[in-house]
Design goal:
Layout: E1 4-9, H1 17-30, E2 34-38, H2 42-47, E3 50-52, E4 81-84, E5 90-93, H3 96-105, E6 110-115, H4 117-127, E7 133-137, H5 153-174, E8 176-182, H6 189-197, E9 202-204, H7 212-224, E10 230-235, E11 247-250, E12 260-262, H8 265-277, E13 280-285, H9 297-315, E14 321-326, E15 329-334, H10 335-339, H11 365-372
Helix pairs in contact: 1-9, 5-6, 6-11, 7-8
Bound molecules: 6-O-phosphono-beta-D-fructofuranose (F6P).
């Protein structure tokens, strides 16, 4: 019988973190289980820094709040942790044994790991050391393997769609090409879905290296029928045929975390399209707007379903799994299946080579839909 559980939120923030936390806490309380939250994701697990979560106190009134009440960390891989000594010397250490010790000493029967592929990889690796974990798939990029959808994604698409609606105004009024750069490192889900929702004319995604001439051609075709404006959505991870992703910054926070900050492809695309079409082009980078603030109703419900299912799985003692949605039904899959061994799918500079990232395939309904309604995909 489980008695005491803890949650950690890890990776970039998304709208819905708190809704998952709330659902786990409430379901735990309904079953007389104590619930705690590690502060700053895996960093809290390492430092043994946690708080008690209760629906009447620390976890009250959080359903609609953005961010995470227990914070999150984007650069803490306990298996390759960046340690800086007093002289500024940097070392990368495997500190996972300390995490195992903390969990065992404090008697946590299960750790819920809310995060994307690198978070779940660490969860899988901790499970191999005897820690009982249950993952919940998070990321605005929607690229976690084995699930139809991650929490946070729907809110990101909604924000991007609203941005496109607003950009339409300037595009039409000033006869311009308006380029919107959205997040999506290795997967173009946000770009593709918001392009369809926001009536875009071109969508460039990492899965289809683009030919800018083809995108320009589509815009020129519109000009021929009197449409002197166009809307273009670009994933931050999109890159030209034979070219590379646009990198803003690089850092070294150890293996298994994001060390490459992407950005700049939107500006490049805007400049090239301006030259090729003769229309003025402007770029807007949506950035962290997609990750913050109130979750959509869909994300609140999805996050609540995920949280309550995760706690149910703990009650059934089904550990070392990821809570997923498959064909609309809640389910779970072994973390081993989610992460795999050294699967190189979607590996990019600085990314987690071991990850099994779920990217857009050419057979996906979204791709077919986009093509059918004349959205140019840069090919
Ligand atoms: O992985 C989610 C994500 O939002 C990516 O789309 C983006 O590239 C990255 O996080 C940015 O993370 P950071 O918080 O490190 O800037």
């Amino acid at each position: 019988m489980i008695k005491k559980v803890a949650i950690l939120a890890n990776g970039g923030d998304v709208s819905g973190f708190n809704a998952v936390i709330r659902a786990i806490v409430k379901t735990a309380e309904s079953n007389n289980i104590e619930c705690y939250g590690f502060i700053d994701g895996y960093r809290g697990l390492l430092k043994n820094d946690y708080i008690k979560l209760s629906s009447s106190d620390t976890a009250s009134g959080i359903l609609q709040k953005g961010g995470s009440i227990i914070s999150s960390s984007t650069n803490a891989n306990v298996f390759n942790y960046k340690v800086v000594d007093e002289n500024g010397n940097v070392e990368y250490k495997d500190l996972s044994e300390q995490c195992v010790k903390n969990v065992k000493e404090d008697g946590f029967d299960c750790i819920f790991t809310l995060g994307g592929d690198s978070t779940q990889k660490s969860a899988r690796d901790l499970s191999l050391k005897g820690i009982k974990v249950i993952g919940v798939p998070k990321t605005i990029d929607n690229d976690v393997a084995c699930t139809d959808i991650t929490f946070g994604y729907n809110t990101a698409v909604s924000v991007a769609t609203e941005a496109l609606d607003r950009l339409h105004t300037t595009a039409e009024t000033h006869h311009r090409i308006m380029v919107l750069e959205v997040m999506g490192r290795e997967a173009g889900w946000i770009a593709l879905e918001s392009a369809i929702a926001g009536g875009a004319d071109v969508a460039l995604i990492p899965e289809i290296p683009y030919d800018i001439e083809k995108a320009a051609e589509a815009i020129k075709q519109r000009q021929k029928i009197g449409k002197n404006f166009s809307i273009v959505v670009v994933s931050e991870g999109a890159f030209p045929k034979g070219g590379n992703m646009s990198v803003l910054n690089e850092r070294n926070n150890g293996k298994g975390v994001i060390n490459v900050q992407l950005g700049g492809v939107g500006e490049k695309v805007a400049k090239q399209l301006e030259e090729l079409t003769g229309l003025t082009a402007r770029c807007t980078v949506l950035g962290y707007m997609q990750r913050g603030g109130t979750p959509t109703a869909y994300d609140r419900v999805l996050s609540t379903k995920y949280g309550s299912k995760a706690m149910e799985l703990a009650l059934e003692e089904k550990f070392n799994v990821l809570t997923v949605l498959k064909n609309g039904k809640l389910d779970c899959v072994p973390l081993e299946e989610v992460i795999g061994n050294n699967k190189e799918i979607g590996a990019v500079q600085g990314g987690t080579k071991e990850s099994n990232v779920r990217v857009v395939t050419m057979e996906d309904d979204l791709v077919k839909t986009a093509k059918n309604i004349g959205i140019n995909l840069g090919n």
